[in-house]
From TrEMBL:
Transmembrane segments: 134-152
The entry's keywords: Coiled coil, Membrane, Methyltransferase, Signal, Transferase, Transmembrane, Transmembrane helix
Signal peptide: 1-21
Domain of life: Bacteria
Name of this chain's protein: tRNA (Guanine-N1)-methyltransferase
A molecular-function term among this protein's GO annotations: methyltransferase activity
One Gene Ontology term from the biological process aspect of the record: methylation
Coiled coil spans: 82-116, 161-203
Keyword field contains Ion transport: no
Length: 203
């Protein structure tokens, strides 16, 4: 009796378990894409041939409505995805533009810093270091030339002054010699005159 009950229970459970396993397998193998749903719809549809020989596929209205809902859901999801992606693209484009502006600003600042680093303010104007060095060395060279010119002029005028002093000394010496000779001559003439006067008085 126990064996009979066990066999009866097993006989009832086996079809239920096999049916459950088939449902699980079918649910696992079901393709949920639109293409898969259309293929399933075509598979479960029945054939109908009209009197004029044209073949038709007969589809349940509930299945048609279900696939229609799925199509609209898919289109809605796709539209939402497109809208979200468009928003993301717009946000990314704005961010890229902002980053490009920041990059341009940073590049300009870097160029300004580089220009200031490579330049020197000279009388309020920024000039390159090369031009500044050229101007500076030109000024130094010009001042050096002026110094050499003034040294030359000083030496030349000093030489002329020494010559003038020497000539003046010679002239003074000649004058003194001439004055002494003239004085001696005058004294000599005075003596001679006195001698003549003395001779005339005696005679």
């Amino acid at each position: 009796m126990k064996h009979l009950r066990t066999l009866l229970v097993l006989a009832l459970l086996i079809p239920v378990l096999s049916l459950q396993a088939q449902e699980d397998n079918s649910s696992e193998s079901t393709d949920t894409t639109l293409k898969g749903q259309f293929e399933d719809l075509e598979r479960v549809s029945t054939n109908y041939k009209s009197t004029n020989g044209v073949a038709y596929e007969v589809i349940k209205l509930s299945s048609l409505n279900e696939i229609k809902r799925n199509i609209f859901d898919t289109i809605g999801t796709a539209n939402k995805t497109i809208k979200d992606l468009s928003g993301t693209i717009t946000a990314n484009n704005a961010e890229i533009e902002d980053l490009n502006n920041k990059l341009q600003d940073t590049t300009n600042k870097l160029n300004n810093v580089t220009e200031e680093k490579d330049s020197i303010s000279f009388f309020g104007a920024l000039i390159s270091k090369g031009a500044y060095n050229l101007i500076l060395w030109s000024i130094i060279f010009g001042l050096l030339l002026l110094l050499l010119f003034f040294i030359y002029r000083f030496r030349n005028s000093n030489f002329l002054t020494q010559q003038a002093k020497s000539a003046l000394a010679e002239l003074e010496e000649e004058y003194e010699t001439h004055r002494r000779r003239a004085l001696e001559r005058e004294q000599k003439i005075s003596r001679q005159l006195q001698d003549e006067l003395n001779k005339q008085k005696k005679s």
